[in-house]
Amino acid sequence: MTMITTADTMIAKLSGWLARHSIDVLRVSLGLVFVAFGTLKFFPGVSPAEALSVATLEKLSLGLLSGYAAQAVIAAMEVFIGLTLVTGKLLKTGLVVMTGALVGFFAPYVLFFTNLFPGAPTLEAQYIFKDIVLAAAAMVIGARALGARLVPSRDRAV
């Protein structure tokens, strides 16, 4: 067996392994992020996004939710999303809830634009910007949950 054939075989095996497992790893890791950030929000003053997230939910709920009640709803929602992602149980329900949450994640750009961008973006604006990656990960996980599959290239022999 030549070195090129061995390398091609190793690449094909790696490609197959990644096709089988990478989306599940993405799902669980995204779930852990949601559980961690959501858990922080159960404790007043601990989450760096607390004031912004409460202000956003107050505006989006037209004042029906405010203060710690708003924070608790956000925390519960994020922990629920995270647990569905980590366990794979109720995954489609969790993804629907995540879709609503992602709308809420980006709403501050519309609701509080001048506060987030008084010139250069504030730390809060940068914090929200990372949610683009969470949204992209959710799209991949959602595609898998709806039946899409990642398959290795057939150009390489195993």
Describe this structure in words.
The protein is mainly α and 158 residues long. Helix content is 75%, strand content 0%. It contains seven helices and no strands. Helix 1 (3-41) runs antiparallel to helix 3 (67-87). The longest helix has 39 residues, at 3-41. The protein is elongated and about 65 Å long.
Features:
75% helix; mainly alpha; 158 residues; 7 helices
End-to-end separation in angstroms reads 13 Å
Low-confidence stretches: none
Helix content: over 70%
Mean model confidence by pLDDT: 90
**Structure summary, number of beta strands:** 0
Please tally the helical runs, counting DSSP H or I stretches of 4 or more residues.
7
Task: Write a concise synopsis of the structure shown.
This protein has 158 residues and is mainly alpha-helical.
Write the layout of secondary structure elements.
Layout: H1 3-41, H2 50-60, H3 67-87, H4 91-111, H5 113-116, H6 123-129, H7 131-145
Helix pairs in contact: 1-3, 1-7, 2-3, 2-4, 3-4, 4-7
